[in-house]
Amino acid sequence: MTTKNPDHIAIIMDGNGRWATNKNKSREYGHLAGTRALLYLFQKISSIQIKYLTVFAFSTENWKRPKKEVDMLLKIIPKIKLRVYNHCKKNKINLRIIGDMTTLPPFVNEAFDKWKTLQHKNPKTTLIVAFNYGGKSDIVHSVKTIVENKIPSNDITEAMISENLYTKNLPPVDVLIRTAGEKRISNFLIWQCAYAEFFFLEKCWPDFKIRDLQNVIESFKKRKRNFGSISS
Ligand code: IPE
Ligand code: IPE
Ligand code: MG
Predict the structure, then answer these.
(1) Domain enclosing residue 41, as ranges
(2) Atom of ligand 2 at shortest distance to CA of 58?
(3) 192 neighbors 173 (Cβ within 8 angstroms)
(4) Contact (CB, 8 A) for 10 and 198
(5) Which of 45, 51, 56, 52 is nearest to 90 (CA)?
(6) Domain total of the chain
(7) Cα–Cα distance between 221 and 198 in angstroms, integer?
């Protein structure tokens, strides 16, 4: 039985739209509430012993949404930039971004650049924001780098692919949480979740509280992980 806290938790923050629709509000209203839930989580994260927390904020497939919604989602990052930065600076939290930054508007990259300047030597936690992130695109990006480095095919290892993913130097995901009831991975950290424990919560993201994270961690500690071996 696992008794230690997970090193790496990843969250698919889903259900902003449904949360708002249930209240007869616009999807944009739901994203604002979702942003508040994220800020609240970032503020409370120091109360939990967790080294890495990755949140899925915008997927490579989310560009398919109406332009108005996409524009609104892109503007959230600059809006919360300073609040997140100041909190993390004060609380010894590092911030990291994963995803394809090359196709994002400059105002989004500018906010991320500020976040990336946080380089505490021994951070209490590292928060990783997945933005314009797709698991398949991550693997393609890794393979391209390996090919560009002219690595002979016989020398290619799993470790090498891992080292060239956006998540370079991060441990594999121990716990994957998805809110709002859907039971799918939606092209999130597909390589990194190879042996993750999955937790599906019915509540929508704007209702997510630190208590929910604590409950998941307690359940995780009771799960038995085999990694292909036999139970001991
Ligand atoms: C998650 O909520 C936020 C993003 C994907 C950016 P959704 O917007 O997907 O909400 P639902 O799934 O439509 O309810
Ligand atoms: C996954 O949610 C992406 C994020 C939470 C950022 P989606 O709402 O985009 O996933 P699908 O389309 O329902 O699978
Ligand atoms: Mg959704």
Answers:
(1) 8-134+173-222
(2) 6
(3) yes
(4) no
(5) 45
(6) 1
(7) 13
Question: For the chain, how many residues are written?
Answer: 232
- Return the amino acid letter for 185: I
Helix axes 67-90, 106-116, angle to 10 degrees: 20
165 near 191, Cβ under 8 Å?
A: yes
Mean pLDDT, the chain, whole residue set: 97
The protein residue with its alpha carbon nearest to ligand 2, atom 12, reads 186
| Ligand 1 centroid to residue 17 C-alpha, Å | 5
Where do the DSSP E strands lie in 87-213? 93-98, 125-133, 175-178, 197-200
For the chain, the straight-line distance linking the first and the last C-alpha, in angstroms and rounded, comes to: 9
The CATH number linked to 103 is 3.40.1180.10
**pTM of the predicted structure, to 2 decimals:** 0.98
CB distance 217 to ligand 1 below 6 Å: no
What would the mean pLDDT of 3-17 be, rounded to a whole number? 96
Structure tokens at 172: 């594999």
